[in-house]
Amino acid sequence: VSQQLKEEIRRGFAGLEDPLAGLLDMLESSSDWKGKGHSLGYYITTELQLWIKEHPAVQQSGIKLEKLQARVLRILAQCPANLLDPLISIYQLHTADRNYLLGHVSHLYHKGDYKEAAILSIKLKLQPDQDVEKMCTPLLLQDKTNLVEDYVGEYPELQSKLLQILDTWCEPGFNIRDITSQYQGLSRYKPEKFNRKMLSKLVFRLLDRFNVDPALCPNVINQRHLRTLNYLFYKRFVEKTMTQENWTDHVQSTVGENRWLQGHLIQLLISYCDLNTAARWAQRCNLPKEMLPYGVADELQKLQIQERVEDASKADNYEESKKKDYYQLPIPRANIHFLQTWEETLQCWEKVLQPGQVVGIDMEWRPSFGMVGKPRVSLLQMALKDEVFLLDLPRLLEQAEAEGEKEKLPHFIQMLYSDVAITKLGYGMSGDLSSLAATWSALKDMNKQAQSVVDLLTVDKQKVDVLSPEQRYEDREFRQPEKGLSLLVQHVLGKPLDKTEQLSNWEKRPLREEQILYAASDAYCLLEIYEKLCKDPASFGLSSDLTGSLVGKPSIKPRAKKQLNKQEVPSPSGQQCKGSKKETSCPPAPISPKEFSVVCDNMLQGLGRYLRCLGVDVRMLENDDDHRRAAEIARQEGRVILTSGLPYQTLQSQVAEGRCFSVNCSEKAKEQALQVLKHFNVQVSLADIFSRCQ
């Protein structure tokens, strides 16, 4: 708003005997503020709000103020939302008689202005004195769920009350028409949006948003569990894609001690299996006989106490046929390490965080089956050529929190993903990284920071050109068609993955042997696929520059990368800069050693002394200095950091791009110095040599 208009408005106030009444006169006769956007009425109102602070004497009280409040309430019912707060403040509506305000809101409600009544109640904080069911029901019928959330937003008691009401509407015998019939003439009523499914979704959203105990909503929770139960039966008996043990785990954790769900389980078992199986589960759940259908109760009496063991030869034959049909891990079982303590993980990090390493990475989490919240990663698998490490993340996280070092593990994961010298293989890596971020907030920007990742999902997108599964597996009509990674493994390695453990309960400990083998295979097969595709990309219909087309950031356009060799080091920009003859594409302008100032990390003191002899301005960290001290000095004195190995990842993020350089530690000081001078285009003359020496 122009300064001129503001001054004109203020002069107008100063000339009025009663500016507060004057504003109402104007608003009552005005029509311009009924549209959208900021109107003249809005500017005048907000300017008066500021002006009053400078002229407190114009404030009214007693009968005069009450009359003004009665007038302003009539305006509030029809004015734009952006006028509510300034008008409430100017006319001190928070000090008005509460019963009078409640009466006014009630009047709006009975006129059918449900939205306006709710908004005014929120602004005046009247909710504790209102009936939450009465206020929210018409809003739900009009599909104004966001307003309902705001209405209970600051009142935990009302949140619980609303959730209990919504849950009763989801009772199996409840007729939703009993509610809708009370609001026959409701304007903007959306009956198609008001049903059990919508209510159930809303309940879960509110439980999640307000962090309320789900036990308050037994009907909605039970219905969701029942849908999970139906889904598990479909996976086991129709799709036939779950093992018996895996299915049993999930059924047990879904049903728990809930008698209502146990009853449904027995009915489903009668439909999908037989009376004997139903009786076994009845025995396992310790169900009273009066709850059981007649046939099941009869079968239960015939059952022996101990469970029959499955025929051993049948099990052996099954295992043998599995080996024939599915991809098998080519490394011994002893080389799969299940790590549950920080000490155990150190050997893993030592091997994984080696420059030039290629690592197959996968993650598992307990299937959520549509429950509240994001699933947390339960297992992180990392495969190297000769061994696989399985990290028990919940246990490691628990240990780290107990020791007050919960950032320790995310720090290592961050180093792995951001290290340009290590190739990370995954399948659908973007989804895995999102789950990691949900497990640890410290990893939320991982997708952006990840470097040198190969997402083999892009191979699928490039249409791997191979035989169809039907040509290879004529005798497998009974099996579900392969998809995802399993299909890629089948195409490239000849046999699919056995995915029967995919929907396992990955949080349950100890893991079953089948789960351990499945998890290790999922990560290890990535190494074999990558190796085979790199050797012969053309036979799979891929471009010969496979690395160039695949390596990059997850779900971002890939960029080329070459493996590190002895003379390649990660440069400040995260690309490779070579210490060999190949020049960088656009070298920086040449500078003299006098213009070049560096700080050397404490493992590079030999390099520091050598550069100093050539006339470079060098500062060196002491042996007991923390690596981060280098970043402080670099920022304060405008120096370039020279470092090596793991500290490079930490330090490069703390200074501007191009101000941190990683040196190859295995080289001698002279080679290291040549590398640095070449990279920063430092031209040394005879006069520079020993120019800094006493």
Automatic annotation (TrEMBL):
Polar residues bias (residue ranges): 566-578
GO MF assignments: 3'-5' exonuclease activity; nucleic acid binding
Keyword Mitochondrion listed: no
Region spans: Disordered: 552-588
Keyword Hydrolase: yes
Descriptive protein name: MUT7 Exonuclease
One biological process term in Gene Ontology: nucleobase-containing compound metabolic process
Lineage of the species this protein comes from: Eukaryota, Metazoa, Chordata, Craniata, Vertebrata
Organism the protein comes from: Ciccaba nigrolineata
InterPro entries with a match to the protein in the record: 3'-5'_exonuclease_dom, Exonuclease_MUT-7-like, Mut-7_DEDDy_dom, Mut7-C_RNAse_dom, RNaseH-like_sf, RNaseH_sf
Assigned keywords, A-Z: Exonuclease, Hydrolase, Nuclease
Domain of life: Eukaryota
Record domain 3'-5' exonuclease: where: 336-538
